[in-house]
Design goal:
heterodimer; A: 138 residues; alpha+beta; 30% strand; B: alpha/beta; Transcription Regulator spoIIAA; globular; Bact_StressResp_Reg (chain B); STAS domain-containing protein (chain B); STAS_dom_sf (chain B)
Chain lengths: 138, 118
């Protein structure tokens, strides 16, 4: 997946503090788009899980936060890119409870459930790109 | 270093998390709380998360682990003040907070700890 959306805000994911700042940026974007408190909370929680993965497993990377427009629908998209070791077994990584680190194994699977759209691209040695979107209900 | 204050109320400890938690801060709180349980001979721990906008799997794990450690040290943990949006999100995330008792607010949490002590 190449990333070339010019409207996206690029946020670094290199420290714990970056994760906190990223959550705040996602919140601001969700509020600006008029999302409900529950949808804000879901998207920020998903962002927090994925940002942690980028930091812990990917060795840090960037997040791209963008406003989405599809017809009359508005949404928020968030893409995490790292150049870490990649995920050798994607179906396994998406299984609840599976963890290669010290987490609870809910990062990827939980983020997938919390978002409306979820895409994951990864290969050993190629890094990982995860994209999630949340669409505003009419 | 940034730290979350722990208040002593009788034989209980009260922690009110009022900042956006990052992972290191969560780990520091876990260590501080277990040390204080021993030092203050606390029988109960109240963790107030009413000011927290999100609880992700890492914070959830910290809370579960803290409750498990507290139990081994003969103290009971009650998590209080969870916002409805946080509860909805936790269920969807798949986090069960195993072994953690919850109450609506600090007052009800104190009642629950007192009942347990009797």
């Amino acid at each position: 997946m190449s990333y070339n959306d010019v409207d996206a805000t690029v946020l670094p994911v290199r420290s714990d503090e970056d994760v906190v700042r990223l959550r705040q940026s996602v919140r601001e974007q969700m509020i600006a788009a008029g999302f409900s408190l529950i949808d804000q909370t879901k998207m920020i929680t998903a962002a927090s899980e994925l940002a942690r993965n980028t930091l812990r497993y990917g060795g840090g990377g960037e997040a791209y936060l963008e406003k989405l427009l599809k017809g009359a629908r508005r949404g928020v998209g968030l893409t995490f890119v790292d150049h870490g070791p990649g995920i050798p077994d994607i179906p396994r990584a998406l299984t609840d409870g599976y963890t290669s680190g010290g987490g609870m194994g809910l990062g990827l699977s939980g983020a997938k459930r919390l978002a409306d759209e979820f895409e994951l691209e990864s290969a050993p040695g190629q890094g990982t790109t995860v994209r999630i979107c949340k669409w505003k209900p009419y | 270093m940034e730290r979350i204050p722990i208040l002593k109320m009788g034989d209980m400890l009260l922690v009110t998390i009022q900042v956006d938690m990052h992972d290191r801060l969560a780990m520091t709180l876990q260590d501080d709380l277990t040390s204080r349980i021993v030092k203050d001979r606390a029988r109960g721990v109240l963790i107030d998360i009413s000011a927290l906008d999100i609880v992700d799997s890492f914070i959830g794990r910290m809370i579960s682990n803290t409750a498990a450690m507290a139990r081994i040290l003969d103290a009971r943990t009650v998590l209080v003040g969870m916002q409805p949006a946080v509860a909805i999100t936790l269920v969807e995330l798949g986090l069960t907070l195993h072994g953690v008792r919850t109450a609506l607010n600090v007052e009800k949490g104190v009642q629950l700890l007192k009942q347990t002590a009797e």
